[in-house]
Amino acid sequence: MERQLFSVIHRVNSSLAVLVLAACWSAFILPSAAADGRSVLAEAVVTDDATRQIELVNQLAGATNEVVARALAAWRISELFLHETTDGVKVPFLLDPQKDAEDRQKGVRLVDGEPITDERGQPLAFATFELVPADTTSRLRRAIKTVLDLFAVANPNPRMRRDAVTKLGQERNPDLIPHLEARLETETDPHVTRALIEAIALTKTVNDDPAVRIAAIEELGTMRSLNGLMFLKDMEKEQHTPAGAAPQISAALRKSVLQIENHLWWGNLVGTAFRGFATAAVLLVAALGLAITFGLMGVINMAHGEIIMVGAYTAFVTQNIFKGWFGSSGLGFDSYFLVALVASFVVAASVGLILERGIIRFLYKRPLESLLATWGVSLVLQQVFRHIFGAANVQVDAPSFLSGSFAFNGSPIGFNRIFIIGFAVFIVFATWLLLTRTSLGLQIRAVMQNRAMAACVGVRTDRVNMMTFAFGSGLAGMAGACLSQIGNVGPSLGQNYIVDCFMIVVLGGVGNLVGTVSASMGVGVTNQLLEPWLGAVLGKIVVLSGIILFLQWRPSGLFATRSRSLDG
Amino acid sequence: MRKKSLLLSALAGVGLLASGSATAAETVKVGILHSLSGTMAISETSLKDVLLFTFDEINKSGGVMGKMIEPVVVDPASNWPLFAEKAEELLVKDKVSVVFGCWTSVSRKSVLPVFERYNGLLFYPVQYEGEELSKNIFYTAEAVNQQAIPAVDYMLGEGKKKFYLLGSDYVYPRTTNKILKQYLKMKGIPDDAIVEIYTPFGHQDYQTIVAEIKRFAAGGNATVISTLNGDTNVPFFKEFANAGLTSENCPVVSFSISEDEFRGLPAKELAGHLGCWTYFMSIRSPENTKFVGDFMEWIKAPKVTGVNYNVTGIDAKGRVTCSPMNLSRMGVYLWKQAVEKAGSFEVDKVRAAMYGQKFKGTAGEVTMQENHHLVNNVFIGETLASGQFKIIKTFNGVAAEPFSEKFLK
Prior knowledge:
Strand order of the largest sheet of chain A: 4-3-2-1-5
Strand content of chain B: 15-25%
Largest sheet of chain B: 9 strands, mixed
CATH class of the largest domain in chain B: Alpha Beta
Oligomer: heterodimer
Number of strands of chain A: 7
Number of helices of chain A: 24
CATH superfamily of the largest domain in chain B: Response regulator
Number of domains of chain A: 3
CATH topology of the largest domain in chain B: Rossmann fold
Number of domains of chain B: 2
Order of helices and strands of chain B: HEHEHEHEEHEHEHEHEHHEHHHEEEEH
CATH architecture of the largest domain in chain B: 3-Layer(aba) Sandwich
């Protein structure tokens, strides 16, 4: 019955009389068909008249049928196809996800979910290149998007709901208000509720009644709506034209814009400060290992960057092992990162140990040779990793507790950045404890100040050197695991950090941990302060020039340390 | 004694000549000028692979005018002046009939005078900024109006009103964004709705930029047009996703990410964002199914039929096909057709025969225009977590126009 009806409709396509008839008929005889909207959609797909098509799609607003939502989404991305029967009727259909042996897929008719058949009633299977997608225009895709957003307002995922509501609000289409208000009554998630109130207020700013408009404008101001700011500003501009002037609305607009901008200003301030600390933490984490090996021990360690790389690749390998055990999500997988931090310390420390025993211990008295030797080591390490893992970068996925962010007055505060700041504080504290509260620390300081005297009083300087270098390398390895969360992991990772690391250690004053901490803070915060004004390229140039000038003025850095080992 | 040696050398000379002409009758030398080491190797090696595959394909079906293609592969090592030296070596020493090569614009600019001086022939396959035309280069590459302009048109069609142009700091992004800015203004987008930002190569810290984009996108209808190059995309997209920005509230269109680059990028963070090329591996056509299938088969046991050439250094793991690869292959076929039409390998004759040459490629038919660029189909694709693109919009038969003043009117 339904099928007959549709072939009739297809033939006298776009005839309104038949449509009205069909609508009545469906309403009386086939109530389910009218309710599910599949027939309306099928009609829309084969209609040639673009305006009529959009009308039909708009009729689907508020429909609840799952298949309609799926088919609309498919249509928008050209995954809804047309089949032309022998008598020239176009039938829209979706693909059955199951593929047969020849990689062909069956078609499922949009109207009734029956398979597409040939004249003899045999189901047809299509190869991918035989498919003819139903076309769309950009206007149509936008109409579809609105209808899909209305579907998404009922999505079980609150994040999707919020995004959909926000977008519907930005359309400022008064027809949508009933849908939004209906949802507001049943909504339980506070974020979505806020988005709904915002969307309704935003839509009401184009209401004909000035009183409603003023109320809506004030509402946006009170709730500090960042999404509304642009619209309010545009409205304020219109107020300056004689046609748009209305003193009460003007005043309301000015007040709301001021409220939101003030809110945003605080957000920016906190955001910039946070970003500054985050950049400083990254620099500090990367440079702390070098502050030990170069700063305390005086080894010009050009392979420092590659030891960071070793740590990052250790995180990658740990991740893959955990993926094999627990799959790529869930608590089991997420815990990989904590294991990776420990593992990267151990692996990098061992590499450092081998490096110290194999090469560096022969070169303590010859800094220039150690520079060349460690540079050579860095090239070897890069090639080794290129050989094992390939030249392309590898992917280290963030555990769920390090992805995402929360917004402070509109400035995103990322969880991974918070973690790095915390981690930087932790390792600085741990290093301080080690150097000042343990016997190894005492020995390290003794050897650093006067190697010969330390040896005389029975400190095994050889062993202390080995341990110190391994510890510094281990810190670099942990830095690598940390940095894998924010950037690239590839054979050239070390090259990206080595210059910054030396810069921080030298600026802070060689041989002084407090100097390293202050230098990274200074560089990080200055960098983030300058970037919004000068851009990333010029900002970096200014910071580097500043450092050069500073070192001209104070060649030994922020905190000069005098020690015999450094004086040679 | 002296006479004998003269005679000997004469004999040897004749012998050499004979053997030389014997091989010349059977083969034609074709140069491949792609970096196989250095920073660009990761991208350019794929093009060398697909060129060798295409030579094998052509040799198997009888070669070019009955001659087997003999590849001459050189390695300019991502070093721009070395590109010019190697190009000269190919043209003067090896006397190749044609060269396929170059990726970056700076390498192309460096070899251009060499090709003009020796009247050589170069096919260039990678999307670029235009504003150039040499009689010795055929650009199968996407011009700005075959990539950036359709992408922006699509975004305007989707109702986007604010454009954040973000790029790495070098010639391609700067030129493209200059053109785009003018184009957007022409389309009625006001100045304050366009932001243009550059970051240095290898930039790691995208916090400030992402925070700015977040504020920029707050009113809705915003999009990012990205010409960020290489692995700076990783920190950018990680930061972008972390800040709660998605393809839903602020889509990113990237011009430098194809299937091949995608292999080194975080798939999860990139899914849903857009790309714009004249070819995607996911294109549905019998030609593409065959190309992808044959190529995947070929890399397992790579060889070039009919000539004594040892194929080495091909990594068969996780390979994909992408637009620059497809355009490289198409260049070889267009050259073959032009040679056969001209009945000669001479550059001037081949060039004349090239105009109007049509080829039914994997993504539909292309035509070589007199401006040395192609008429080609353009696709907008949405990235999937699988590293493939889902085609969501097709622009048929877009004629490349290298000079922006012609389409900015």
